[in-house]
Amino acid sequence: MSTLAVSRHDFRILSEEMEDRSAEDVLAWAAERFAGRIVLTCSWQMQSSVLVDMLDRIGAEVRIVELDTGLLFPETYETRDRLIARYGLEVERVEPEQTVAEQALSEGDELWRRDPDRCCALRKVAPLQRALVGMDAWITGIRRVQSPGRLTARKVDLDESRGVVKIQPLVDWSDEDVVGYLYAHDVPYNPLHDRGFPSIGCVPCTRAVQEGEDRRAGRWAASGKTECGLHLP
Ligand code: SF4
After folding, report:
1. What is the structure's pLDDT at 2?
2. Is 205 a catalytic residue?
């Protein structure tokens, strides 16, 4: 575990202070406070689109990392490419140690069916760990309304086990806030959101949700799994 860039005392004050600030303010403050040691991870869902646009508008430079499991939807990769073209982004791809084919040889075919926690650990959590090496702060797009486990998330949080300050500018945004922002600024976004996918992950573990279903019902639908392990409680 690396050393936190702020003391716990300072963190508590900062976290309290930032809670009332706008997403733009939080992002601008974090980009300056942790300059050169801050990373935005993108899953190319609608939150990624908002954050990429916001960084561009406030003129903040941060490292951008794509955690590419090798199993994302074609629409997700296309969304990434449209955002790169629109904003001139430099995106660093961080991949799992093994390709999907290599994983099938060492772990057996379709690990996600038998042990999705291990599959996420190999294809998402381990790459994140590598992406955070040398970083003091990690920007994520999580929002409280996404799941009960995210209800207590704050705009500035700590991930003590990974030794980083988490910056979560959109944590108090509603769905309407996100969609309103995308339309207001004409930001490219993942078209799967318009086809019944409120939450988008890997192809084998994501389906569209039906009317009346929970927004996360389409993720790991056949199992009791609700989180990939990137965002610790
Ligand atoms: Fe594997 Fe599914 Fe997790 Fe993707 S979401 S890493 S396919 S278990």
Report:
1. 63
2. no
